[in-house]
Amino acid sequence: MPGKFAVNRRRLLAGAIMLLPAFFSRRASAAASSFAEIDQPGKPADAAFIERAFEMRQQAVVIGDQAYGAVVVRDGIIVGQSPSHVVVHRDPTAHAEMEAIRDAARRLGSRDLSRCTLYSSSPACPMCEAAAYWADIERLVYGEDARDGGSPRLCG
Q1: Potential cystine with 124: which of 38, 63, 128, 153 (Cβ 3.0-4.6 Å)?
Q2: 35-64 burial, b for 16+ CB within 10 Å, e for fewer?
Q3: What is the pTM of this model?
Q4: Closest to 70 measured CA to CA, from 131, 153, 10, 14
């Protein structure tokens, strides 16, 4: 009987290998379609992205959380966004910026957020700025007047 089991195992393995390209193409298309779930502004500009960060801030207030919101943008497309979830998730690290970075990484399928800008309703705290630094985010923009915070710095 061991011979029969080995043959079946080989067939199963061969079938699984044949399915791998379909699996990976579905993952890639799922990542691409995940941006379609984010309502993109008509005119990609700092003002529009800051406005979205403030929409996220308003969502935070509505759900009973701290009044902060953030979005991550790459090449004029919002790739991640979130209101603060510190209170509702009982998670002291769930700042809007951290949640938006997590959302962008999940949607892009990578921790590498180079070529991205983080827009937030207020200046990033040291934890969020460090997360942006480690994610390779290039630029921070914050506040109603879209103030340029420059590149994130570690222990800045």
Answers
A1: 128
A2: eeeeeebeeeebebbbebbbebbebbeeee
A3: 0.78
A4: 131
